[in-house]
Amino acid sequence: MNRRQFIQLCASLPCALSIPVYADESVSFATGLQKAFDALNFQPEKGKREFFVTAADIHYTEDQNHDQNRAFRFLIHELNTLPEDLLPDHLMILGDCICSMSPCFSYGPNVPKALKEYANLHEDLAVLNPKIPVRVIAGNHDTPPFDEESEVFCREMKTPPYYRYECAGLPILALDGGHDGFLGKKQRAWLKEETAKLQPERNVAILIHQPMGFTNERGLAETLPDALKNQTGEVYVLAGHEHHDATAYFQLPKTRLTQWTHIRTGGAGFNSNGGPSWWVYCVEDGRITARIQRCMDGQIVAHRVVAPDEKSLRPIIAPFSQVQEKCVVRALLGEDESYELVTCKGGNCGSYFFYLKSATFQIHVPAGAKPSKMAVLGNLNSGFNGTPKPEVDRKRHVFLSADGENWDEAPFGERTKDFLYWLELPEKFRSVTDLFVRVDAPGMAANDVLAGFGLFE
Q: Rounded to an integer, what is the distance from CA 387 to the centroid of its chain?
């Protein structure tokens, strides 16, 4: 079977997922995009059938000759080749527009360097066809820890931190993931107000830099099940952050959530034959019907969006939501007031610690409470991003104290499916008014995440 026959076959199958369109470097992006639309039987029509382009993690630097800057200019050049009838509804940058407002988790900011990166980005965006609106959201490199409204990012990019708009009848909620993907109180309240305005049967898209997280970057897991509890229409989440393409499906109370994370556009494969990669989203009458990838080898591939197998739906797990025991203290970092941070060596991102070396917490226990168990919320293992390293894991310990001076080590077990590590509290710690907890970890030798504690009777 040749390529033409394969394309014809795929186009005839209602459940076909992928349609290769071209892999010839001499074919223009405009020609390839039109071929993809033809294969999908999709022709743009203002208000009914529109499409938008997503770029993720462009990571602009001070050096305009850096591959990351050059890669995004490549995208701008190809969008500028599009004829009037093929102009996207908008270009969305899914966070991490620059590098230096937080060069690494918990670090920041280098404001002079960041301002130069913003200036370079604006210089290149000025070349983009003015008929293509640009929308942006903040990522972890765009804003430092503890900045819930991404102040400098919003000022420099002339955008509100979070906002709503529509594309071909599809409501789109653009969120500010900030540095830690947490979503502050004001944003959570705004999100609940906006989702309450939706008709339950309508589909809705949510754009955020950080995809669904259950320990760190847990904002979506903590807000979406309640905010969308009455929704029966489909929910889409478009995210960046992870520098690769992935699809995941989650179960909401009355519907499903499809999450797409996106490959890094900034510098990703720019030196290969075809250039960087990005995605095109086709929207018809309030529904995402197809996705088109501009691949790193120059090929364009059209993907029809089809319903997933029900077996592929995963639960959304909010912290401690699966625990049956009575909770007497919840101490989620950055969220609750039932603890104090005494000492810290490592990356304090706001709602979680990363690259943790050592941290001590004073947890306030209510009068009369007698907790017998503690759950530690996090990912405390060297296999978080790869193969476990026993020599690294031997450096991780948890200690308990009633006074913050005399310490007993408390062994804890393997992580459960709801991202908890359980330990039994020795009898002498079950009647204290303040429980001191110290976690010693390998630091940057492992990508440890520590997000909070729960005490249970």
A: 23
Whole-number Å distance between alpha carbons of 20 and 264: 21
Give the residue from 350, 406, 443, 86 showing the smallest Cα distance to 341. Answer: 350
Tell me if residue 53 falls in helix, strand or coil. Answer: strand
Q: By C-alpha distance, which of 331, 337, 321, 327 is closest to 353? A: 331
DSSP count for the chain of H helices, then E strands:
8, 23
Question: Which residues lie below 8 Å from residue 195, measured CB to CB, with a gap of 6+?
Answer: 173, 204, 227, 228, 231
**110-129, pLDDT tens digit by residue?**
899 999 999 999 999 999 99
Range list of H helices, 13-125 = 29-40, 67-80, 111-125
For residues 40 and 15, give the distance between their C-alpha atoms in angstroms, rounded to a whole number.
Answer: 12
The residue count of the chain comes to 457
HSE value, Cβ hemisphere, 13 Å, CA-based, for 231? 26
Q: What does residue 268 show for φ and ψ, rounded to 5 degrees?
A: -70, 105
Angle ∠(201,319,136) on CA atoms, nearest 5? 55
Q: At CA 46, angle to CA 45 and CA 50, rounded to 5? A: 75
DSSP state of 262: -
pLDDT in tens, 366-404: 999 999 999 999 988 776 666 777 777 777 899 999 999
Mean pLDDT by 10 residues, the chain (457 residues): 38 49 66 92 92 97 93 95 96 96 84 96 98 97 92 96 97 97 95 96 97 95 96 97 95 96 84 80 96 89 91 93 93 94 92 92 94 93 71 85 95 88 94 95 83 95
Domains and CATH numbers, the chain: 3-315 (3.60.21.10), 327-456 (2.60.120.260)
Helix (H) or strand (E) holding 318: none
Of all helices (H) and strands (E), which one includes residue 328?
A: strand 327-332
Three-class DSSP labels, 346-413: EEECCCCEEEEEEEEEEEECCCCCCCCEEEEEEECCHHHHCCCCHHHHCCCEEEEECCCCCCEECCCC
Report which of 161, 117, 109 is spatially closest to residue 135, judged by C-alpha positions. 161
- The reported pLDDT for the residue numbered 9 is 35
Crossing angle of helices 111-125 and 67-80, rounded to 10°: 20
Let me know: does 100 contact 139? Beta carbons within 8 Å.
no
Whole-prediction pTM: 0.91
- For 249-307, write each residue's pLDDT tens digit: 999 999 999 999 999 998 766 766 568 999 999 999 999 999 999 988 888 999 999 98
